Amino acid sequence: MSNGKLKVGIVGGTGYTGVELLRLLAIHPNVDIVAVTSRSEAGLPVSEMFPSLRGYIDIAFSDPATAKLEACDIVFFATPHGVAMSQAPALLASGTKLIDLAADFRLQDTAAFEKWYDMPHSCPDILQEAVYGIPELNREQIKQANVIGNPGCYPTTVLLGLMPLLEKSLVDFTTPIIADSKSGVSGAGRKAAVATLFAEASDNMKAYGLSGHRHHPEIDAQLKQLAGNELQFIFVPHLVPMIRGMLSTLHIKLTSKAKNINLQSLYEQRYADESFVDVLPQGVLPETRSVRGSNHLRIALQSQVEDYLTVIVVQDNLVKGAAGQAVQNMNVMFGLAETAGLDVVPLMP
Amino acid sequence: MSNGKLKVGIVGGTGYTGVELLRLLAIHPNVDIVAVTSRSEAGLPVSEMFPSLRGYIDIAFSDPATAKLEACDIVFFATPHGVAMSQAPALLASGTKLIDLAADFRLQDTAAFEKWYDMPHSCPDILQEAVYGIPELNREQIKQANVIGNPGCYPTTVLLGLMPLLEKSLVDFTTPIIADSKSGVSGAGRKAAVATLFAEASDNMKAYGLSGHRHHPEIDAQLKQLAGNELQFIFVPHLVPMIRGMLSTLHIKLTSKAKNINLQSLYEQRYADESFVDVLPQGVLPETRSVRGSNHLRIALQSQVEDYLTVIVVQDNLVKGAAGQAVQNMNVMFGLAETAGLDVVPLMP
Amino acid sequence: MSNGKLKVGIVGGTGYTGVELLRLLAIHPNVDIVAVTSRSEAGLPVSEMFPSLRGYIDIAFSDPATAKLEACDIVFFATPHGVAMSQAPALLASGTKLIDLAADFRLQDTAAFEKWYDMPHSCPDILQEAVYGIPELNREQIKQANVIGNPGCYPTTVLLGLMPLLEKSLVDFTTPIIADSKSGVSGAGRKAAVATLFAEASDNMKAYGLSGHRHHPEIDAQLKQLAGNELQFIFVPHLVPMIRGMLSTLHIKLTSKAKNINLQSLYEQRYADESFVDVLPQGVLPETRSVRGSNHLRIALQSQVEDYLTVIVVQDNLVKGAAGQAVQNMNVMFGLAETAGLDVVPLMP
Amino acid sequence: MSNGKLKVGIVGGTGYTGVELLRLLAIHPNVDIVAVTSRSEAGLPVSEMFPSLRGYIDIAFSDPATAKLEACDIVFFATPHGVAMSQAPALLASGTKLIDLAADFRLQDTAAFEKWYDMPHSCPDILQEAVYGIPELNREQIKQANVIGNPGCYPTTVLLGLMPLLEKSLVDFTTPIIADSKSGVSGAGRKAAVATLFAEASDNMKAYGLSGHRHHPEIDAQLKQLAGNELQFIFVPHLVPMIRGMLSTLHIKLTSKAKNINLQSLYEQRYADESFVDVLPQGVLPETRSVRGSNHLRIALQSQVEDYLTVIVVQDNLVKGAAGQAVQNMNVMFGLAETAGLDVVPLMP
């Protein structure tokens, strides 16, 4: 950390999580971006690919082979699954911390990782010490962590939406937890594909991945850990024609213990000290645009049938669901103000 | 019926269900549109308000007070709630049948009607003989009916999505039925309102109406009738940034009896003779655009957790969810080919 | 032509113009679709790729190498540039007519073709007898044609927008003709590409191709032929976040002769007998959605500055701008009703 | 100015320019928002209407009648035309400066104002001293101004797009200047209206206002002043289905003097010291999303025909086209850093 600023590297800066990291870090007061790598675009000024960054990011993409990432204090991996784990040992050896926005350090169970991502895990020992990066859930461990598995977008909504209930054992596990989740199209990433073309995805919606979405085992594992219990989980993701935004509608059965608890108060108290989790007043439902471009996540509770609760959660999938949470994790890891670089007012309309 | 064609009137032709009726009826081979009324637009050529109809609809809006609707064979009401029931007695007295696209003839329980629509029902006797207009459910009664309560858009998806299970008593009612439904914005109607402005509704989504949506009691009543049983129903509608399209994700618990039944085959057989209900092959999930502009409704089945089933249903909310179903009902009532005027290939992309 | 129906083949049925041909031809009363080819998808049922066609198209894609296209009365090429000309000699030899929706038969000047499309023209002799397929412009020649070069989408709007003026020598060529054109994203085709992803193209617009768009020489050549004169032409295409729709704003300087002419009447008379060209009443401006899904093209005239005229033209880029015009050409070639299969009411909203 | 911060009032905080001012001013380092008025919403917490501002704006709307606006250093009017001029005398008398985002102080010619806005001007003397608020054009006068007429969105693009040419007398006025402009739908404001409903404006585009748009005389007057000359101006605005964003395509004829000038360099030099005007490298064309949410405006130059130039300009209509420019004007008026509060990286995707 020279001149009082963290030296930051980004591996894989050409996708949506990469450019979102750049948007946030460009005006982070405690950060110097020293390298943004891209195998295919090495040499190209970053702002030539992303004109929105003209005047904010002056460096060019560098070749991963020659970028001096070991000189960084922290490196973000906004890459396909498998890249971060291949570089983690060398970086850690040189004292560089890392945050992986892909799945390499999300699933503690290496067998599950290998099944869902169809590749062996190359550093299970590092995986053991990696921390799942939701600060509202694991803040103390994140402070000590050298490696963060930054959560998937869907899991962030489900876990923060249910955490207060699970911590207090208010969920009846005889009935499956259901997450009916909806994502904007940027969640599919910035890669050439017919299915996410404007002319395919606009004025259209669909459910997808019912027979097995990679966030299913991730949510499952975290829910079980929070619950300290086996449970059943039904997960139906949907694709919605918006650029950014994610909304999860969660249905759970409550235990009899919940009858005597004011759940609205429970949520408000649980998140009272959190800068980025906003429990809406009773009766108010959230819109995704109310968090567009910001790291906030908003929660509302409703009950239509006795003993059942519906929890609605919204976030910007690229911010609290990806790059913003990664910056929040970095802030926690380095003892910075947790909101540093994240004081962005949502863009509305 | 002169010149072998039905004489058709439309009351309230300026909203989305009205103009959609006009789109479909304009090229219906067995129909003459003789009157389209609008209090506010009387005298204005219909195609001046809706240039898409230039060359197809040559008449002007007429004043409801002077339009000779009693001379029609059938009148569609594409009006606010309460209008159809006020005119029903006179029309029926002159031998004119009617289809109401609003709610006046959907809820057999007048107390429920009065609670949810906040007005007394002016002709409960006519309500008693009215038929709930889903041909796949009530075809024989529709053939005999003089008055049709055309279903709401959401109810159509939920009822056709669950009918095969309910008919065979395969739903376990100890767990609530959950409908997580998503609608395009045209469902909110063609009326000046801030909440559905482009700049409000685009790139945005939200749940709404959790504390009480008017389609809730309608679905509830029909489900109970189909089930022959009490049951609990959780209904979460969402607004999605697309013009047309509706997708309902239905979650139910199965009875033990279901273990021995091939549900995919059950659905395929139940709908084998239906022109507008399409059960997709196992593993294929529907997109809303696959029915854009058409009267088709597509269904897919998936199970992630033993004893639980997820049913996905898509339709065009303005066609099978409103005007198309109304035309289908008319066809059934008058012994026409059920697909007459509805042979529209979905618009894709 | 067996059973009184034309035997039709489609080469390249997996792109947007291909599937749009299928949508229109599926319910064309005089057509049997006997083959839809696709090298990559041979064997796959067409409706598996395009579920919107379930129940309408029952055949599978066939291998171009084995499809018996010579047995067809007419073959449409919805393929990349260069394919139609490679197959044209064999098809013509067996008496099959053909309509190319790509550029192989649009530019009479082979040097221009070779410059803009970067390939030699393999059958300049056939090109000589090919007819540029705008029926409103070349109907008599189309009736006799064996090969049609179906126009580009932008050229159709510019040419039909200016034809009445050019035919009467009302354009002053000392000032360039300016076409400021806007296209929906489907115009870019159904191919995997980052630039037309939903998350890139939505809530965004841009001008493109200013340094040389392939429709520029096509428009230029046709304008000169219509004008019987040299002229200068400025063409600025823009990409707009809508699936379908094209709007061209045309700016021209009028000759002094125009002072004594009622241009509104000129246009109305010129197109009075045309089924698909609609001159709007004075003062009414067209919206693209007023032609969504239909073969109509609407025109409006306005003048803000003396001696200058602004012409606004809208069409559906996939219908009158591509597949619909191709079907219209087929109808003309075979003496069918020109509107056969094209009686589709625009989808609004 | 207490505690070193400007005391700011906003009159009319419920529209898009009002809420955009709030978004920008909420994190402006030199500003305290002391009052946001709304006749209809007095008493309602601002963040209840705009949940995107939860945690950023803690005050409620106040009644215009009782709000102590005279205690402010500056008051922004984000109101309908006519409101600012009614309150200007009292505010100025108490030493409060004001910036009107409506049209009250844009047109120096009161007859033109009265013709286009259909109301008398109540304070022509104040109008005389008001400054047209484009800092890149009038910075020195803005420094001294007490009243700013904040420009319309379209005029900002046209004037900044042509200013370098007009200052150097490079425009040939024998040919009209043409502005073919496209705006996102938020430009129509946050008011209940059918024409800008999602279901009307989405997947659709149109030209509008050809027979007389209120920005026409505003641009006209400013162009003439810049040109020191009479000139003719053709203005065609279009509505495009995006929330934010404006793109103007400007066509001009060059004088012979321009032949010897490198126009690209001319533009780059003219704007070299401007923080918010970005001249793109030769050959690069701008997208509206490259400025989404930010105060930047980007310009590109192209020439297809000798002696003619096409200038493409993009901005966010709500920022540089409205609220951002207003904040920039405030910064200039009070000697703050011109970029204070405007250091927002564009939101992409």
Key structural traits:
7-stranded parallel beta sheet, Rossmann fold, 7-stranded mixed beta sheet, 11 helices, 14 strands, Dihydrodipicolinate Reductase, domain 2, homotetramer, 349 residues, alpha/beta, 2 domains
Structure explained in plain terms:
By secondary structure, chain A is of the alpha/beta class. Chain A has 2 domains: 2-129, Rossmann fold (3-Layer(aba) Sandwich), CATH 3.40.50.720; 154-317, Dihydrodipicolinate Reductase, domain 2. Helices cover 30% and strands 20% of the residues of chain A. Chain A has 11 helices and 14 strands. In chain A, the strands form 2 sheets. The first copy, chain A, has a 7-stranded parallel β-sheet, sandwiched between helices. In chain A, helix 7 (153-167) packs parallel to helix 9. The longest helix of chain A is centred in the middle third of the chain and has 15 residues, at 153-167. The mean pLDDT of chain A is 96. Chain A binds chain C through residues 16, 184-186, 188, 190-194, 196-203, 241-243, and chain C through 16, 184-186, 188, 190-194, 196-203, 241-243.
Adjacency order of strands in the biggest sheet of chain A: 3-2-1-4-5-7-6
Mean pLDDT of chain A: 96
Largest interface: A-B, 48 and 48 residues
The span between the termini of chain A is 39 Å
